[in-house]
Amino acid sequence: MRKKIIAGNWKMNKTPAQAAAFAKEMAAKADNASVDVVFCVPYTAISTAINAVAGTNVAIGAQNMHFEESGAYTGEIAPGMLTEIGVKYVIIGHSERRAYFGETDCDVNKKLKVALAHGLIPIVCVGESLTQRQLGITIEHVRIQVKAAFDGISAADATKAVIAYEPIWAIGTGVTATSAQAEEACAAVRQVVGEIYDAQTAEAIRIQYGGSVTADNAAELFNQSNIDGGLVGGASIKDDFDRIVNYKR
Ligand code: PGA
Span 202-220, mean pLDDT? Predict the structure, then answer.
């Protein structure tokens, strides 16, 4: 039985002090031991957020990292810098990073390998654009993204990763995929994992849905058989995020 995982992607929101206050309050309300709960906060807020959630079920994640260990990469953050301060998760290949910062499938693959080597749990994002959906190539596209991301990664490592299926047209738009659309794509992601590895790996890997998840639609989405929780943006910094974590099973 896969344990559900619900992660908040705070994006470029909250100063360290704001993050600490919100994380503390939310961790108290969203401390659901039957779900893995993660707050992916801005780099500058990581330390204060970790202190704020100490002793709760909530883990702190980063929203990105570089694939090199160190070096002349001005403005970047290395994996070892994250693990040393207690980061447990890292989002990799979010569509905003792909769109605004030119991240490629090849970068995603390098980051995934490095995250796993450092014991970070990667949340790897895949998902189609509106044009791709309209062209009927959603499944083909996410299959390619998953194959490229997991190239050269062992089955044992793959099962430690989380995949977030996030249709780009649903991110931050208020237009959520229907539970049938989300389930179809998540099932396709699981199928391709089975083709790359085996049935056991496909059964074990956790697949989230992301894109305009709210307290009102979370339960229907998360109760689909191939959806193991969500990656939540806008609604993760709202006061009722705990309703998403404590969704009705
Ligand atoms: P959203 O963002 O929930 O605001 O649509 C999801 C995400 O970007 O991960």
Answer: 98
pLDDT of residue 82 exceeding 90, the answer is yes
Dihedral class, residue 197 (left if φ above 0, else alpha if ψ from -120 to 50, else beta): alpha
Distance separating alpha carbons of residues 99 and 17, to the nearest angstrom: 29
Is 140 a residue of the active site?
no
Q: What is the pLDDT of residues 216-237, one digit of tens each?
A: 999 999 999 999 999 999 999 9
Q: Where are the beta strands (DSSP E) in 51-183?
A: 58-62, 89-92, 121-126, 162-165
Residues with CB under 6 A from ligand 1: 9, 166, 171-172, 210-213, 231-235
Say if residue 31's pLDDT is above 80. Answer: no
**Quick check: 188 and 143 in contact, CB under 8 A?**
yes
Buried b (16+ CB within 10 A) or exposed e, 60-82: bbbbbbbbeeeeeeeeebbbebb
Q: Would you call 166 a catalytic residue per the annotation?
A: yes
Using 50, 70 and 90 to split pLDDT, how confident is the model at 1?
A: confident
- Pairing state between β 229-232 and 121-126: unpaired
Residue whose CA is closest, atom 2 of ligand 1? 233
